[in-house]
From TrEMBL:
<dbReference type="InterPro" id="IPR005668">
    <property type="entry name" value="IPM_Synthase"/>
</dbReference>
<feature type="binding site">
    <location>
        <position position="40"/>
    </location>
    <ligand>
        <name>Mg(2+)</name>
    </ligand>
</feature>
<comment type="function">
    <text>Catalyzes the condensation of the acetyl group of acetyl-CoA with 3-methyl-2-oxobutanoate (2-ketoisovalerate) to form 3-carboxy-3-hydroxy-4-methylpentanoate (2-isopropylmalate).</text>
</comment>
<keyword id="KW-0012">Acyltransferase</keyword>
<feature type="domain" description="Pyruvate carboxyltransferase">
    <location>
        <begin position="31"/>
        <end position="305"/>
    </location>
</feature>
<keyword id="KW-0028">Amino-acid biosynthesis</keyword>
<keyword id="KW-0808">Transferase</keyword>
<feature type="binding site">
    <location>
        <position position="280"/>
    </location>
    <ligand>
        <name>Mg(2+)</name>
    </ligand>
</feature>
<keyword id="KW-0963">Cytoplasm</keyword>
<dbReference type="Pfam" id="PF00682">
    <property type="entry name" value="HMGL-like"/>
</dbReference>
<dbReference type="InterPro" id="IPR013709">
    <property type="entry name" value="2-isopropylmalate_synth_dimer"/>
</dbReference>
<dbReference type="InterPro" id="IPR039371">
    <property type="entry name" value="LeuA_N_DRE-TIM"/>
</dbReference>
<dbReference type="InterPro" id="IPR002034">
    <property type="entry name" value="AIPM/Hcit_synth_CS"/>
</dbReference>
<feature type="binding site">
    <location>
        <position position="246"/>
    </location>
    <ligand>
        <name>Mg(2+)</name>
    </ligand>
</feature>
<feature type="binding site">
    <location>
        <position position="244"/>
    </location>
    <ligand>
        <name>Mg(2+)</name>
    </ligand>
</feature>
<keyword id="KW-0479">Metal-binding</keyword>
<dbReference type="InterPro" id="IPR013785">
    <property type="entry name" value="Aldolase_TIM"/>
</dbReference>
Length: 562
């Protein structure tokens, strides 16, 4: 065992590009997108897609809006070949979509590739060979001249085969494989040799694709490499400069974005970052990052869950719950302070406002998600989240001090249960705690008469705890009269410190909710009442508060005790 085993690795050398421009660049439009889900994504699967899955994926990619789709490696297997035939013969390729196919720079594979494409309308033939020093030495056993010859001779073969099939609109793409691990001057030499053969023009460009086949460096170094190629390649104005980042260091998205800032016109990748090892760059991630900058990505993710279901079905790999933009948990806040900020921001938000929501970088509704999962309650949550769920799910607008009181009730339940509580759980706890619909704290047949000076006399049958009895009192309104009646009966002053009410529902189903904060002696409690009449709801709220304060009513001879 080496004492310093890390020393067997070579650090990546910075690129000498002191006048680099990409750090100041601002992305203002969508790149050209190429989905390689059916090629690089597929070749990375434990079980490559069967034809039905491939077709479903292709149709999903078309629906999203991809105009360039790499559909396979037709010389690799009969399934790959047959799928491409199915696309062409079955008329599955819209006129404005180009299919792309990959081949190694080997003559018999290129010939087989062209056989698969017979009759297609628009095709990008994508050829690659390794150019990196380790591949030159170990795999291809060729020196630099040999690699240049390998690339340019097969570029010539492709050009000739295409020329012999004028019924198809052919475009060509070349990838110096492992560009990310290759000397820049050599990558340029090989690419220039290929474009010298293809002779692209401004009107008929070829595609030069720079892969980070393995992500070796920080994304700024990849960006430097792309900018260097962008500035040094011959025939640059006749080239669509493409990048193909992988995600070995977990910075594929950053590498893709910085490469676009550095001069790339096009990005190759997969939905949700499927692909070899840690994946190809996640095109959904880059597209929606642009979207949140106010840029139309030209890809439609307005039903992102449909896209996810398709990808999970086709790849048989689940999308992680924390995956950017699509994971089950990415719009959910459990933490109390986050929930509080979200709740306040939703209340403050007006139609037409810019999206400026704490902890929510994108409006979930833009991706077909509801706000249901935005706030979920567990032991990390506070009053804001609890109040948000009761309001959005049950229309209950708890006043602030009641929120504080009720969150302590919830916290005790949470500490016992130790798991997430749903909105329905919270509502059940709320009803139980405040005795909603509970006959053991209720008012029966309240009778009110007006007396002199606009005052009210009230008498009612009351159930409170185990006590059932009659109360009577006067006041400047029904609530005041009821409070006086109860104070008299309890032998203690009951004071209303705070009062809120609102309605829930509408039309014949509308009900009133009253929230009262009561003080009896030195005890302060909230009570809640819900009823078709606001007066009865308020009386219920008073009894709810008294019941929670656990007051015992002094018994008199004639009263019955339950
Ligand atoms: C980075 C990427 O994703 S590149 C795309 C990789 N994708 C795939 O490989 C999936 C499809 N591949 C296949 O089905 C097969 O590998 C085939 C059909 C292409 C080739 O199959 P085989 O001829 O049996 O070769 P094998 O799979 O062992 O590949 C290694 C051979 O390819 C050669 N090779 C590898 N890359 C290239 C290249 N770009 N150009 C020319 N030759 C190459 C190697 O030198 C080696 O040749 P050798 O057998 O003479 O030593
Ligand atoms: C063929 C090339 C583009 C590739 O897939 C890679 O280098 O990752």
């Amino acid at each position: 065992m080496l004492k310093q085993p890390q020393l067997k690795y070579r650090p990546f050398a910075p690129i000498a590009l002191p006048d680099r421009t990409w750090p100041d660049a601002v992305l203002t439009r969508a790149p050209i997108w190429l989905s390689t889900d059916l090629r690089d994504g597929n070749q990375a699967l434990i079980e490559p897609m069967d034809i039905a899955r491939k077709l479903r994926m292709f149709q999903q990619l078309v629906k999203i809006g991809f105009k360039e789709i790499e559909v396979g490696f037709p010389s690799a297997s009969q399934t790959e070949f047959d799928f491409i035939r199915l696309l062409i013969d079955g008329g599955h390729i819209p006129d404005d979509v180009s299919i792309q196919v990959l081949t190694q720079a080997r003559s018999h594979l290129i010939e087989r590739t062209f056989e698969a494409l017979d009759g297609a309308k628009r095709v990008i033939v994508h050829v690659y060979n390794a150019v990196a020093p380790v591949m030159r030495r170990v795999v291809l056993a060729q020196d630099e001249d040999g690699i240049v010859e390998l690339a340019s001779s097969h570029a010539r073969q492709i050009k000739d085969l295409a020329a012999a099939r004028p019924g198809t609109d052919w475009r060509f793409e070349y990838s110096p494989e492992m560009f990310s691990g290759t000397e820049l001057a050599f990558s340029k030499r090989v690419v220039d040799a290929v474009t010298a053969v293809w002779e692209p023009t401004r009107e008929r460009k070829c595609i030069i694709n720079l892969p980070a086949t393995v992500e070796h460096s920080t994304p700024n170094i990849f960006a430097d490499m792309v900018e260097w190629m962008h500035r040094h390649l011959e025939r640059r104005d006749s080239i669509v400069l493409s990048v193909h980042p992988h995600n070995d260091r977990g910075t594929g998205t950053a590498a893709g974005e910085l490469a676009l800032m550095a001069g790339a016109d096009r990005v190759e990748g997969c939905l949700f970052g499927n692909g070899e090892r840690t994946g190809n760059v996640d095109l959904v991630n880059i597209a929606l990052n642009l979207y949140t900058q106010g840029i139309d990505p030209q890809l439609d993710f307005s039903d992102i869950d449909e896209v996810r279901r398709c990808v999970e079905h086709c790849t048989q790999i689940p999308v992680h719950p924390r995956h950017p933009y699509v994971g089950d948990l990415v719009y959910t806040s459990f933490s109390g302070s986050h929930q509080d900020a979200i709740k306040k921001a939703f209340s403050a938000r007006k139609a037409g406002d810019l999206w400026d929501m704490p902890y929510l970088p994108i409006d979930p509704k833009d991706l077909g998600r509801s706000y249901d999962a935005v706030i979920r309650v567990n032991s990390q949550s506070g009053k804001g989240g609890i109040a948000y769920l009761l309001e959005t799910e049950y229309g209950l607008e708890l006043p602030r001090r009641l929120q504080i009181e009720f969150s302590q009730v919830v916290q005790r339940v949470m500490d016992d249960a130790g798991k997430e509580l749903t909105a329905a759980d919270l509502h059940a706890i709320f009803e139980r705690e405040y005795g909603i619909g509970n006959a053991s704290a209720s008012v029966v047949q309240p009778q009110m008469t007006e007396i002199a000076g606009g005052a009210v006399r009230l008498s009612a049958e009351v159930v409170l705890g185990g006590w059932v009895g009659h109360v009577q009192g006067e006041g400047n309104g029904p609530i005041d009269a009821f409070v006086h009646a109860l104070s008299t009966r309890l032998g203690q002053e009951v004071r209303v410190l705070d009062y809120h009410e609102h309605s829930i529902g509408s039309g014949a189903d509308a009900r009133a909710v009253a929230y009262l904060e009561l003080r009896v002696g030195d005890v302060t409690r909230h009570g809640v009442g819900i009823d078709g009449s606001i007066v009865r709801a308020s009386m219920q709220a008073i009894l709810s508060g008294l019941s929670r304060a656990q007051l015992t009513v002094p018994q008199s001879q004639e009263e019955n005790v339950r």
